[in-house]
Specification:
Alpha-Beta Plaits; 4-stranded antiparallel beta sheet; 36% helix; binds zinc ion
Length: 400
């Protein structure tokens, strides 16, 4: 039987095998809309969960309604929600988890090693993190004291679009567990973990005007692009009216032939906020703005979307646990900080129900969500050792 020292050494020896698993996971595209690809990624992970002796329950998630840049609504199917459980009846339980989906609609290039880094779609966010989680658990399961902790893993498949379908299941899990580890990438290449997180929501504005021939009938047209431009300019200006909110008009589309007055224009907006009051302020403001423009001058203006992630504000207890995580990391010679971020993840949803969530225990990486996303190869081992040490501390009642 292993002791913790042996388990640390064992993790050191697993670097290549962790890399191999990560390359296999990242080479398979699993963009949120690619339900089939996610199934293939899930199968690789489920194999590992079976080896760990976990009971696996898989359930269908409701799809979601997407409005594309042509204003067309469609139902998008997403992959399942998976829960794996081991020793449900133990004295202490730990929730671990992450997402299977990535932001990449297709894999433009193969995963490749470049110096100390592995580059590829989802290597940091968060397939690298899933590998860290699996190997930390494998190391833990080798120990005598394993029976003192039961664990549950969730894998969702719609995190990158706000966990709309998974929200209900996340809530159930949050209410069942006191403590959760999520394997989002560390905040930076130093390995910092997140403190407070902003909440978020995504909105779509669809403006319908009236098409007309430019040369023959210009004055009878209603130019949807011009109307939408006026609206988004106003919305963007709200950034300077209030702090604690970030409003990003991130995507815009309109028009068809240049000799035709465009009758359709669509904008997509990402909003981040630090408190509920400011989110309510935005909602009221955008609703009255849309009302003001809709039907006026013969245009139709529609708003879709909502806030899906609540603010994650660390409670005193959560601050205490985060500080202990920092100390434990320091004791392993991993010098990390706790820093606030505007990014959101499932940790926002779990923390809302009082589950203390350390949500950036995945690999160290950067350029996430871009074509040069990369992760520091050594962090596969160092982070899994940190997670193992955190589990040992939790088992001894030293973490919480
Ligand atoms: Zn992520």
């Amino acid at each position: 039987m292993y002791d913790s020292k042996n388990s640390f050494r064992w993790l050191n020896e697993q670097k290549q095998s962790m890399m191999d698993l990560l390359i296999k996971l990242a080479d398979q595209n699993s963009g949120t809309k690619n339900a089939r690809g996610m199934g293939l990624v899930a199968n690789i992970i489920k194999e590992k969960l079976v080896e760990l002796g976990a009971d696996i329950v898989q359930q269908k998630l409701p799809g979601y309604t997407d409005i594309d840049l042509h204003g067309i609504k469609s139902n998008i199917e997403v992959y399942d929600f998976i829960v794996a459980t081991k020793r449900e009846k133990s004295d202490r339980s730990l929730l671990l988890g992450g997402h299977l989906d990535t932001v990449y609609e297709k894999n433009e290039k193969k995963v490749a090693v470049e110096g100390d880094y592995l580059i590829g779609p989802g290597v940091a966010d968060m397939k690298g993190g899933l590998v860290v989680m699996l190997y930390a658990l494998q190391a833990f399961e080798k120990l005598n004291i394993k029976n003192k902790i039961g664990w549950q893993i969730f894998l969702d498949s719609d995190e990158e679009i706000g966990s709309i379908g998974s929200k209900q299941e996340l809530t159930k899990l949050a209410k069942k567990h006191q403590l959760a580890f999520i394997f989002e990438p560390a905040i930076n290449l130093r390995g910092d973990i997140s403190g407070n997180r902003m909440g978020s929501g995504k909105f779509t504005i669809v403006v319908v005007g009236k098409s007309a021939h430019v040369g023959r009938d210009f004055n009878n047209g209603k130019n949807a692009i011009i109307m939408l431009a006026a609206i988004v300019q106003k919305i963007h200006n709200w950034n300077s009216l209030a702090k604690d909110i970030i409003i990003n008009v991130g995507k815009i589309f309109g028009g068809d032939a240049v000799n035709k007055i465009p009758d359709l224009a669509v904008a997509k907006i990402d909003v981040r906020f630090s408190n509920k009051d400011i989110a309510d302020w935005f909602k009221n403001k955008i609703n009255s703005l849309i009302k003001e423009f809709d039907q006026s001058l013969g245009y139709s203006v529609q708003l879709y979307g909502k806030f899906t992630r609540p603010v994650k504000k660390l409670t005193d207890k959560a601050k205490e646990v985060s500080a202990k995580v920092q100390q434990i990391a320091n004791s392993l010679n991993q010098h990390i900080d706790v820093v606030d971020t505007g990014g959101c993840c499932d940790g926002n949803n779990l923390a809302e129900f009082g589950c203390i969530t350390i949500d950036t225990l995945g690999v160290l990486g950067d350029n996430i969500h871009s074509s040069s996303e990369r992760m520091l190869i050594d962090s596969l081992v160092s982070r899994s050792q940190l997670v193992l040490e955190l589990m040992l501390n939790y088992q001894q009642g030293k973490l919480l």
